[in-house]
Amino acid sequence: MTFLPDLSILVGFTLAAVFLTLTPGPDMTFYLSRTVMAGRAAGFAAFIGASAGLVVHSTLAAVGLSALLAASATAFTVLKVAGCLYLLWLALGAIRHGSAFSLDREGRKSEPLARVFLKAIGINLLNPKIIIFFVTFLPQFVSPADPHAMGKLFFLGLWFIGISIPLTIPMILGADRISTFLKSSPKFLRGFDFGFAGVMAAFAVKLVMTQGRS
């Protein structure tokens, strides 16, 4: 299948996606907050809405990046180098500032599920960090010379969502316990911060070495 990346690339991407999904941030905070405030149905509505937003990002990134590749392989390579710098910036930010987790227990507990769903979509679609991430991270796993780049980019975007499903469901089911644990375990969060930083830095170094050989 032309849209499937090589196994080594898929394994590397999966590792990064697992760390990104498990690292506390705005999405995790929103899932857990909705669950604690309004129940598991609200938590799942938030997750489904966020995933729908990621489908849009995956589609736009695949179309836009493949168009850039068709127009100029050099420009695509420049974007990959910019992505390398972005990965290093993420790694440094994780070490300097730590995980962004602040559970909001206030708000309307009777908020309709449709509103939670739409709010989650909005959080993803309007979050510039997610846009930058998809534009700079996905190209790290596709070669500028690959004629099937668009299909692979889109597949990786959907694969990212697929990976998040079995990881996020237990978070929602155990929201109360997980939120309490995260807020009371700064050492665990710092360990995750350094693990996340290490993975991002490793991909950045790998990219630099690849560019140097080309």
Topology:
Blueprint: H1 7-22, H2 26-38, H3 40-71, H4 73-97, H5 113-125, H6 128-137, H7 149-173, H8 175-183, H9 186-213
Helix pairs in contact: 1-7, 1-9, 2-3, 2-7, 2-8, 3-4, 3-5, 3-6, 3-7, 4-6, 4-9
Overview of this structure, please?
The protein is 80% helix and 0% strand. With 214 residues, it is mainly alpha-helical. It has one domain. It is globular and about 50 Å long. It starts with 6 loop residues before the first helix and ends with a helix. The mean pLDDT is 79.
Please name the defining characteristics of this protein:
214 residues; mainly alpha; amino acid transmembrane transporter activity; LeuE-type
Radius of gyration: 18 Å
Number of strands: 0
What percentage of the residues does DSSP assign to strands (E)?
Answer: under 5%
Give the overall form.
Answer: globular
Count every helix, treating DSSP H or I runs of 4 or more residues as helices.
9
Number of structural domains? 1
Question: How confident is the prediction overall: mean pLDDT?
Answer: 79
Low-confidence stretches: none
> What is the helical fraction, as a range of percent?
over 70%
Structural class: mainly alpha
Largest sheet: none
Task: State the end-to-end distance.
Answer: 26 Å
Element-by-element helix/strand order:
HHHHHHHHH
Transmembrane segments: 6-23, 44-69, 75-95, 116-141, 153-176, 188-209
Membrane topology: Multi-pass membrane protein
Pfam family, one: LysE
Main location: membrane
Brief overview, please?
This protein has 214 residues and is mostly helical. The protein has nine helices and no strands.
